[in-house]
Amino acid sequence: MNELIQRQFERIGARVVVRAPDGRRRAFGAAPVGLSGLALDVRRDRSGEYFDLAVDRLEIALQVIDLRPRDRHLLLMSRSLNDGAKDKFLCGHDERHWFVAAVPRGPASSVAGAMEALKPVAVQTEQSRRRVRRKHRNSRRNAAFVRQGEWFFVPVGDAIIPETTMLQDEPLRRGGGKAHWAEYVVRLGGEAVYVNRRCPNGLRPTEYGALLGRNPKARQWRWQVLRRDARVYAKGCIRHPDHQTIVLPGWHRVVLNRESEAPGMRQVAFLD
Question: What backbone torsions phi and psi does residue 109 show, to the nearest 5 degrees?
Fold first, then answer.
């Protein structure tokens, strides 16, 4: 089974290590995703990036259910040997690096279907409204959106955005990942939360107060006050070290992909 998985990853130009879980800490790459008995990660060694699949063969069976060598993507399915639950992971290459994304549970059975399932409702609605042709729906830029990594930017046309609340050089971040930096941002509504490296998903004011009550030294942990689940708009340059800079000439609504709805990504929050 390991050799078959390795050959399928090789067909998209990727290296993969399939191993038993050993509890070691990751040194490189993105945060691992997955459920009990399975963890997927992107790591790096002297030869470059590779996929690391830690799987308990007594709990999980793996199968590649779609493969797109030209696009350098494949869809991996895990099946629990205990209760039969199935989860899918899109593995592929985006601009400069390999990635793995947990796909929301549903009928997706192909790479194209997984990419569509990861799109937020606002993006799906806009591409239908603008009648984006199927062959263009997974491009990084079309009439309905511009995409950079996990973030989608949907044009809002003549909508009035209150520029009196505009901020400059603001981060767009989910959890503890690398921030995407937007030249101009307006945030409307949402919930104020206290964020730092130890609490990347944010603490509500009551949770923050309770923490300080238990540990007064926590006040020195370099907190930022951000807004969770705000309605966010951006324009200008959007920068990220792993992606090409994009330029938004007018205001666009900022929406995160639906990976947070997948069981393997339950702890991901919308933070900007």
Answer: -130, 10
User: Which residue's structure tokens are 């009928």?
Assistant: 107
Instruction: Note the pTM of the prediction, 2 decimals.
Output: 0.80
153 class by beta-carbon count within 10 Å (0-12 exposed, 13-18 middle, 19+ buried): buried
Residue 222: strand, helix, or coil: coil
- Token readout for 195 is 């964020």
* Residues 217, 209: Cα–Cα separation, whole Å: 12
- 95-104 pLDDT, tens digit per residue, is 889 999 999 9
Q: Are 16 and 92 in contact (CB under 8 A)?
A: no
Torsion angle of C-alpha atoms 23, 27, 28, 30, degrees rounded to 10: 40
- Rounded Cα–Cα distance for residues 155 and 183 (Å): 16
Q: Which residue has the tokens 């399975």?
A: 38
Question: Looking at residue 32, what DSSP letter applies?
Answer: P
220 vs 141: CA distance, rounded Å: 42
Cβ within 8 Å of residue 166, ≥6 positions away: 184, 185, 186
Output phi, psi for 222, to 5 deg: 55, 65
Residues 6 or more apart from 17 whose CB is under 8 A from it? 50, 51, 52, 53
58/180 Cα distance (integer angstroms): 39
CA of 8: how far to CAs of 46, 76, 149, 214, in Å?
A: 22, 10, 24, 51
Q: Is 117 helix (H, G, I), strand (E, B) or coil?
A: helix
**pLDDT tens digits, 169-221:** 998 987 667 889 999 999 998 888 998 888 888 899 999 999 999 999 999 99
